[in-house]
Amino acid sequence: MAPFEIRTFGDPVLRRVAHEVTDIDGRLARLVEDMLTTMYGAPGLGLAAPQIGVGKRVFVYDVGEGPEALVNPTIAESDGEWCYEEGCLSVPGYTFEIVRPKQVHLTGLDLDGNEVSLEADELLARLFQHELDHLDGILLLERLADDERTRALRALREDTLAAADDQTRPTGGLALG
Question: Where are the alpha helices (DSSP H) in 42-145?
Answer without folding.
Answer: 122-135
